[in-house]
Amino acid sequence: MLNHIQSTTTLHNGVKMPWLGLGVFKVEDGEEVGNSVKAALEAGYRSIDTAAIYGNEEGVGKAIAESGVPREELFITTKVWNADHGYEETLAAFDASMKKLGLDYLDLYLIHWPLPSQGKSPETWKALEKLYKDGRVRAIGVSNFKVHHLEEIIADAEITPMVNQVEYHPRFNQQELHDFCKAHKIQLEAWSPLMQGGLLDDPILIDIAAKYNKSTAQIIIRWDMQTGVVTIPKSVKPHRIAENADVFDFELSPEDMDKINALNKDQRMFADPDEFDRV
């Protein structure tokens, strides 16, 4: 049920993951990320998504420690960066992230990009499987993986990824990928769900928002969840963080869902995972 800020989906290993979380991409370490995380936790969020490359794991960890929220209520995600692909490198990167976060265990660890130019994703995945088997992380997954990247992982894996976090918004709904993930019980998760604000002035979304007395951002976030996609909108403004979470007191009609689905243009805003090889 999608009726509460702490509503969860169940991953294929039985772990419960909140439908809504706070993303902290490009949020400065220290006071800015600390204030954002604290504002989210005070608003009822229980999922925080960071990454090694964001450079703010320490600030996230400090805010968690100071929040007073019991660790078992939280769902914390971080990601291994491209420069650390490989078995031993990934294990070392995980240790470094955990030290910065100040946590005894992680809820979700992701391979940040498939990095096909290196061809190390299967090796990196083996490290994630070890971390999972050792009980250091409750769930493992990937980020920015297309269907063929997932197929490569699954062909050699003991454990199928539990999550795939990708660019996902009404103009880029990745239907083929979504169908593949559903077929393999991989939870799709949306980053940049608001298209970095590029969708907020869309006239169709504005009309739908007026009908429900909601903002366009709230309509998009609700659409994400009703399509079965976990979402992690980013903000550093406490009022916006709270507003983004005010999406559990209404439900989009099938007709309005269809209108939003029809906005798809296969319009990717960010790097193509087949071409992105930054380390």
UniProtKB/TrEMBL annotation:
<dbReference type="Pfam" id="PF00248">
    <property type="entry name" value="Aldo_ket_red"/>
</dbReference>
<dbReference type="GO" id="GO:0016616">
    <property type="term" value="F:oxidoreductase activity, acting on the CH-OH group of donors, NAD or NADP as acceptor"/>
</dbReference>
<dbReference type="InterPro" id="IPR023210">
    <property type="entry name" value="NADP_OxRdtase_dom"/>
</dbReference>
<keyword id="KW-0560">Oxidoreductase</keyword>
<dbReference type="InterPro" id="IPR020471">
    <property type="entry name" value="AKR"/>
</dbReference>
<dbReference type="InterPro" id="IPR044500">
    <property type="entry name" value="AKR5G"/>
</dbReference>
<comment type="similarity">
    <text>Belongs to the aldo/keto reductase family.</text>
</comment>
<feature type="active site" description="Proton donor">
    <location>
        <position position="54"/>
    </location>
</feature>
<dbReference type="InterPro" id="IPR018170">
    <property type="entry name" value="Aldo/ket_reductase_CS"/>
</dbReference>
<feature type="site" description="Lowers pKa of active site Tyr">
    <location>
        <position position="79"/>
    </location>
</feature>
<feature type="binding site">
    <location>
        <position position="112"/>
    </location>
    <ligand>
        <name>substrate</name>
    </ligand>
</feature>
<protein>
    <submittedName>
        <fullName>Aldo/keto reductase</fullName>
    </submittedName>
</protein>
<feature type="domain" description="NADP-dependent oxidoreductase">
    <location>
        <begin position="21"/>
        <end position="264"/>
    </location>
</feature>
<keyword id="KW-0521">NADP</keyword>
<dbReference type="InterPro" id="IPR036812">
    <property type="entry name" value="NAD(P)_OxRdtase_dom_sf"/>
</dbReference>
